[in-house]
Write a structure and sequence with these properties.
single chain, 335 residues, alpha/beta, D-Maltodextrin-Binding Protein, domain 2, 2 domains, 5-stranded mixed beta sheet, 4-stranded antiparallel beta sheet, 15 helices, 18% strand, signal, Solute-binding_3/MltF_N, SsuA/THI5, ABC transporter substrate-binding protein
Length: 335
């Protein structure tokens, strides 16, 4: 409580703590349709619930609505859960919504973009491997996380190396399964991201290819259609997305050490390494939400076209059909 009072003493820190007015208190009560107090959002998170963790660390988890966090190994599984009606908000790269909407009957819309780091998006080989570059993967068994960033950057890296998808024996695997397969010798390389890559390096794996400069850094927030029909749920969703941005701003504002400790405990790596990764990630591309724009839609269209070229999509997909600016106004206020 002393810490919270000290934050309130600073105008700059106060701005970090305040959700937008319509979501908490006076203005919201004037319009019952925007009263978020009865809202419960079922929200997806990937890896080690980093979004939930950063909110707690920045003391921004005291939302005037309820949040039920659900952990998944990848954004693709979040979108599957959303299609099944089990999530209200899903966070993912640009890829999962493409495949989730490919049947032309999505029950969601992309409502916001969270700019984020593309580090730790790599093709790795186990300790002792003789493979030193992507060209060396020809004829090899290569694991990848299907319908995710790993699928996309592996395809693009192969093209740059003069190889095609058919030049490798591609094996779709979940992150944890792929890591086990890599260590067990049943695959020669693995294209993955996040914690699985960090863990692999701790176990002696080396990098032969990176998606850092291939990926856009656009990570998408998708909302179920039922959320968009409710002013209160829209307000809550915008507030939560903005809070995550503000929490990362708090971390960057001289609080890296503490969050590095939180990260290290969750990922089982040395604190010094966790801080180094955190600082590098925020330097490369500070985590920050932004509203939907023509450029963000165009970025995802480029990715969808690549999957059509690969044959993973059976026909051209017009991605703007599942984007909306319905959250733009609320999100601008919240940010």
């Amino acid at each position: 409580m002393l810490f919270r009072r000290s934050l309130r003493a600073s105008a700059a820190a106060l701005a970090l703590l305040l959700p937008f007015a319509a979501a908490c208190g006076g203005d919201a009560s004037a319009d019952s349709s925007s009263d978020v107090s009865s809202v419960t959002l079922k929200v997806g998170d990937t890896g080690w619930k980093v979004s939930e963790a950063v909110l707690k660390y920045a003391h921004l988890d005291d939302t005037p609505y309820k949040v039920k966090w659900n952990l998944f190994q990848g954004g693709d599984l979040q979108l599957q859960a959303m299609r099944a009606g089990a999530l209200d908000l899903a966070s993912s790269s640009e890829i999962p919504p493409i495949f989730s909407a490919a049947d032309g009957k999505p029950n969601f819309k992309v409502v916001a973009v969270q700019r984020g780091t593309t580090l730790n998006q790599e093709v790795i080989v186990p300790k002792g491997s003789k493979v030193t570059d992507i060209a060396g993967l020809k004829g090899k068994k290569v694991g990848y996380v299907q319908n995710t960033t790993a699928h996309y950057f592996l395809y693009e890296l192969l093209k740059r190396a003069g190889l095609t998808w058919s030049d490798i024996d591609a094996k779709p695997l979940l992150p944890n399964d792929g890591l086990a397969a890599l260590n067990g010798g049943s695959i020669d390389a693995f294209a993955s991201y996040g914690t699985s890559v960090i863990t692999a390096h701790q176990q002696g794996a080396t990098t032969v290819g990176s998606g850092a400069d291939i990926l856009s850094g656009n990570f998408l927030w998708s909302a179920r259609d039922s959320v968009l029909k409710s002013p209160a749920q829209r307000a809550a969703a915008a507030d939560l997305i903005a809070r995550i941005s503000k929490a990362y701003a708090y971390v960057r504002d001289g609080h890296e050490d503490g969050f590095a400790k939180v990260t290290a405990e969750a990922t089982h790596q040395p604190v010094a390494q966790a801080k180094s990764d955190l600082v590098a990630a925020q330097k490369q591309r500070p985590t920050q939400a932004r509203t939907v724009g023509a450029d963000t839609i165009a970025s995802q269209q480029k990715v969808a076209d690549a999957f059509t070229e690969l044959g993973a999509l059976k026909k051209h997909l017009d991605v703007k059909s599942f984007w909306t600016t319905a959250l733009n106004s609320d999100l601008k206020k919240a940010l």
